[in-house]
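Supplementary Note 2. Why include the ligand at all?

Several targets in our set were suspected to adopt different conformations when bound, so apo predictions alone were not considered sufficient. For every target with a known small-molecule partner we therefore ran a joint prediction. The input for zinc ion is given below.
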Amino acid sequence: MSSSAPLSARVERILAATPVHDIHTHLYDPAFSSLLSWGIDEQLTYHYLVSESFRQMDVPFDRFWSASKTEQADFIWNALFVEHSPVSEACRGVLTTLNALGIEPRKHDLASLRKWFAAWKPADFVERVLSLANVASVGMTNSPFDDEERAYWNANLPRDARFRGALRIDPLILGWTEAAPRLRRWGYAVGNELNQATADEVRRFLADYTRKYGASYCMVSLPPTLSYPAAGETAWLIDHAVLPHCRDHGQPFALMMGVKRAVNPLLRMAGDGVGRSDLTALQNLCSANPANRFAVTCLARENQHELVVLARKFRNLHPFGCWWFTNTPQLIEEITTMRLELLGTSFTPQHSDARVLDQLIYKWQHSRALIGRCLARKYETLEAAGWAVTDAEIQRDATELLGGGFARFCGL
Ligand code: RAT
Ligand code: ZN
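The joint prediction is reproduced in token form.
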């Protein structure tokens, strides 16, 4: 395609051909075999679909949770694909994924889809998905507090370098009372009191797991009630352990702000909600800690504009992703356009948050198209002002937006 082709087609082609470095997922290196989910039943029981399905079926919660995964997938398929049209973003994602894998979903029932997936060897399926999604690297979520995952790390398995470590620490800074005895059991001499000796041991713990994971950043998800500075364990641990650790190890501190956990516990993992954060906390973090870098995504639509304005003021702040309830086409277009108009290309428009390997296909197919549309619209306005963008410039911007800018922010 020459540079005389329509701008939108050039942008679409270049974005499609640019490999993405997906900075946050819940996928695992294939060596962690029992933790890597894939296949139709995993896709259908994704927690985004679980919460949608309960709106369309009257299966009691207990009945659903005591069912096998296969039966749960049957319930969801019937409720969301057979009895109603699958127009939600998460439903559409299943269809995009199957379609890209060469499956015509209308011609199959679940039994034959299961057979199709069962014929794959996991290692081959990983290659197929990464190549279809054009994903170059996958950021994992690695928690020292996950017992099943810890066992894999302790076994020193041969690793796939495309799966990159990230140190996730929610239980440490949001639940110190339960975290402290666990750290002690693992050989870190922390007291219940928060003092310098305890901070030093928490830093030793963070350093050990950073090295184990090869983690390029440290991450936490936070409730909308976060305040900073503040009395209490969370702010104390951030100041005395996490931020010094991040400075020592050259890691950004990634904050996912605005999740209300377990708004409806009957939905289990699908029961979390959203709340508007007070971004004064983030402003204070960025301004009081200029030697730290903060990568931030907000769950509430209402926080998106303020986040972008803060990023204009603090160059140690890097907005990323359209997270979870904002990962819908309408909001991706709104947020990405706002970010382009106020920040240029100095942000990372999307991460997939995939929990099932197959989802990389739809999450990136959908997001690439939307990012391309937003970008093309901006280039058209430049052309109208006499600044025709070249393919080389489009390529530079695509590389930046699909992970290059974030890698630089991480100091890689
Ligand atoms: O998007 C999700 O799948 C959520 O359940 C959360 O895991 C969120 O992404 C997180 O990392 O806390
Ligand atoms: Zn996540």
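The chain has a mean pLDDT of 97. The CA atoms of residues 124 and 270 lie 30 Å apart. Comparable summaries for the other entries are listed in the accompanying table.
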